[in-house]
Batch of 2 targets.
Target 1
Amino acid sequence: MKHPTGSAEWIQSVITEFIETSPDNSLRNETNDKAFETTLVGFSSGADPIYEEFKTHVGPFHWTPAEAFALAYPDIQARPEDLSVISWVLPQTGATRKDNRKEMFYPAERWARNRIFGEEFNVRIRKRLVEVLVAAGFEAVSPMLCSQWERKDSDRFVIASTWSERHAAYASGLGTFGLCDGLITPLGKAMRLGSVVARVKIPPTPRPYKDHHEYCLFFTKGTCGKCIDRCPVQAISKNGHDKIKCRNHLKPTSADYVKSRFHFDGYGCGLCQTGVPCESKIPVAADVKE
Ligand code: SF4
Ligand code: SF4
């Protein structure tokens, strides 16, 4: 059935169809495995006050949807309420998760391939969605692909950026943050995220949570902490995620390994996203065996 152009269902079908049919959706391994098999899409309003709040939480440099839109369309006076943020979750496949679950220090090959080639495909999804929206008469921009996008130092987050896919997903009803900083979505934490800001009015996806840590058992039940044990370099503790330690493990440590073992330029880890109760779902207390 054809959905009305510009509707939530139509946008969802554009992303889903691209995932299903694009030859670029590949880990580029011998068996040409798909990088992603499915998606989950959420929406938030450009006028949602949560985006102003992110300036306090992440840093004053974090763009509102209107600020991101204005970078691409400086001549259009778009009101925040005329804009929607489209955010999507791309869960890792079962095969990729299974491989990484077995690892104790370095990433599995599928995981490392997804980090590079899966993310390249995610960039194509962003571009594809912008193209389709613009062709249909809805100006659109992917903030992550703006030339002005950059990483920033943040008092609270140490390393932050002018647009956070995780925060856009949180605002769009797609999940809450875990102890390790990853976003726990209904399809789990082993996933990648993307987003586009468009001048189109879509009803916002309800946020079925009141707290930004609501899906993490450590914060709600005082249990779990499995991601602490999974991290090979002790970058996660009861105090949270040490981004510097984590980054140093990704580069150069895992990058050197990926090059020598799998023979491509890449990196990755994701051990804290696999072999944990929140890997592929919102965890419940019974998932933790003490
Ligand atoms: S592994 Fe446990 S403590 Fe870590 S983010 Fe997931 S639910 Fe929270
Ligand atoms: S990505 Fe790897 S190094 Fe970083 S916190 Fe997770 S397990 Fe630790």
Target 2
Amino acid sequence: MSSQKQSVIILGTGSYVPDNIVTNDDMAKMVETSDEWIRTRTGIRERRFAADDEATSDMACKAGQRAIEASGVDRSDIDLIIVATMTPDMPFPSTACLVQSKLQLPNVCAFDVQAACSGFVYALGIASSMLQSGNFNKALIIGAEKTSPILDFKDRTTCVLFGDGAGAAVLSREEIEGAGILGTIGGADGSDPSVLQQPGGGSAIPASVESIQARQHFLKMNGKEIFKQAVRVMGQASADILEKLGYETSAIDLVVPHQANMRIIESLAKRMEIPMEKFHNNLDRYGNTSAASVGIALDEAYRAGRIQSGDVILLVAFGAGLTWASSLIKWQ
Ligand SMILES: CC(C)(COP(=O)(O)OP(=O)(O)OC[C@H]1O[C@@H](n2cnc3c(N)ncnc32)[C@H](O)[C@@H]1OP(=O)(O)O)[C@@H](O)C(=O)NCCC(=O)NCCS
């Protein structure tokens, strides 16, 4: 997707996190853990948990609204909504349809993407291709996640890691050459879903008294295995997109990685030989917000003035599946 006469650019970004701050000390009141353990093993200091009456679509709408405002686009011109989430309001209809109604976007095709923590980058790639095809003009993509209800507060190895929030971007096809979303790649390996999964609640293990008693509706993870895979696939996805588009690592101005664990990000930085100062991180404040994490970090980086015209930005993510994805953007 490089150097066409028309480019898909990000016109505006937005994000939202719930008000409720849950510190590591708060977590230590729920499970046997400590601020020191969580900070040194993960880099997380606090996370946000949504209110009981705040669903994924509500957070998605707040982030989406901010992205629309930042983009200056008339909402009737948006013709595509993609919501990336692994915690939809309900199995169906899609969260994207709920967002369509709540944000009153009259002329859209709307659907969800389920690629877990890689979801925002997957959505960016899909939306970019759909706009590039000429069949769509302006897209609202949102990564939104309410992980708190699927966290097992009896499992200290997982519940301390995740948080809730949403990140969004408005994409548009414009008459600009050689800028915008230069390319996106994704990959998947479903050979061992047990490394990170929510086993219950789907067609394999429908909700039952037994499934609930067996705690199968909570997130389960083999942290050590995920850690190893994360460093490997994020490194590979980053190298692959650079090679595909003919860019050197030295051309990158900013990396916006999935926010799962600071040690994973540091390993990626080392592997790619990119200084940590070029990474935008907010893991300390929000934990892992899954599909929302890259969107929130991108919005924060932009609003903090870390992204200027002409900058080359690498987005890279991995998640349950396993899935992974990377995207290279030249800011217009
Ligand atoms: C989960 C993770 C932080 C664990 O870190 P780790 O250094 O591998 O820790 P270990 O699993 O080896 O556990 C070490 C010890 O700490 C304990 N421990 C685990 N969680 C703990 C917690 N929250 N508080 C205190 N102790 C904890 C373990 O029980 C273990 O104790 P033991 O040695 O007595 O058995 C790390 O593996 C990780 O981040 N993995 C990737 C997870 C991820 O990114 N998931 C999202 C993918 S999108």
